[in-house]
Amino acid sequence: MGEGAGRRVSGVAGGAVSDVAGVVLDGVRPGAGVVRADSGTGGVLGGAPNDAALHAAGRRWTYRDLEHAIGEWNSRHRDLDCYDASELGLAEALVAVCAAARRGIPVRVENPEARPERAGIPAEAFLLVATSGSTGRPRALARTAASWYDSFPAFSARTGITAADRVLITGPLHATMHLFGALHALWAGACVTDEPERATAVHAVPAVLREVVRAAPRLRTAVLAGIAPDPGALAVAAHLTVIEYYGSAEVSLVAARRVGGELDAAEVQGAGEAAAGKSRVAVRGDVSVEPLRLFAGVQAQTRNGLLFVRTPYAVLGAPEWSGVGDLAELGADGSLRVRGRGDCAINVGGTLVVAEDVERTLAAVPGVRAVAVLGAPHTVFGAVVTAAVELDPDAELTAVRARARTMLSREAIPRRWIPMRRLPRTAAGKVARGALRDLLV
Q1: What's the pTM?
Q2: What does DSSP assign to residue 362?
Q3: Region of poorest pLDDT, from 112-121, 131-140, 149-158, 194-203
Q4: Strands (DSSP E) along 170-268, which ranges?
Q5: Domain-wise residue ranges, the chain
Q6: Overall fold of domain 349-440
Q7: Cβ contacts of residue 302 below 8 Å, gap of 6+?
Q8: pLDDT, tens digit, for every residue of 178-205?
């Protein structure tokens, strides 16, 4: 397949997934990581035929049902060479994506309200996705099937998600962290669900996790991404195994760590120094925090304080060393400390203030539900810190400001405070910094 002008695209099933006739596909191997149709295997799905595969929108599908739906989708759309799952619900979108994987053709999973401009489709592309748009307009990306599926065994080992889990997806699939989580769950033979009350594991950003925990009594594992977890999110998830992973839509998985809970001796033994102390396990308040560790096959270096990675999981067209855009520090033992976005660093009178450092500090102040920090131009200092905050109903901004003055350096103290009922967010739940900057600066 050459560059994609003139591809025939469809996102219309021609009928609900639950109504499709059964077409059984051969060659399903639970947990197999091979997904291209020309490989002769069916490793997209890892569950046994009668196992639960999807619980969504009040419907139930076994892996046999899902196989039937995939076969019927491909039968109906055999004349197309590109699918579009962007405007479909969770179940139907996953059918379309898995069907594309089986045929070895690309599938669009984009935000229908902010589709990126796409000049063409590379011949080897499978997923046509985009950046989140948290700092501006989404940017078109294309990746191979292998760039995700080859990472699934390592992701299973880090998260502990197995075929026994019911994995809650808390956002739209065009947010790549949710699409990744759903495809990994199906590969592992787990059940993908949109029902919190049935979930044993969840993929979420920290702000969403706060709400999910209250509605998910069976939850055991929380997989967090998008932004580092704040103390409030960790507090409500104190009874869970919390895995934080770091990456981006462009380079996928980079590093991960477990946050909170008891860490066994094998995890603690023989590791070098953590960023915050002399042992591998640091303590943040009452929460134990491992340092981030790179996934196997991923290499990292810093250039002028900015993180660059070399990885087999990058999108098509990525340079050998991809700049992530984050300020970071690499430990001699291979640990990684991510300080925040390089383009969110604020130069206050010659002192570099990292916005995410200030956000993490302010998020620990009682009464602060969420916070975002930006730089605002200043005639004397060049820039000063501005804080937009969501407060609890009974919180007083004057008390929050007074507490902040005792916790932050002089340069990092916000000179401007803006209380907001709700910070603007992307569909994935991350703060939409571009939109916030347009509102405030």
Answers
A1: 0.73
A2: H
A3: 131-140
A4: 191-193, 201-204, 221-224, 241-248, 252-259
A5: 9-249, 349-440
A6: GMP Synthetase; Chain A, domain 3 (3.30.300)
A7: 308, 328, 329, 330
A8: 999 999 999 999 999 999 999 999 999 8
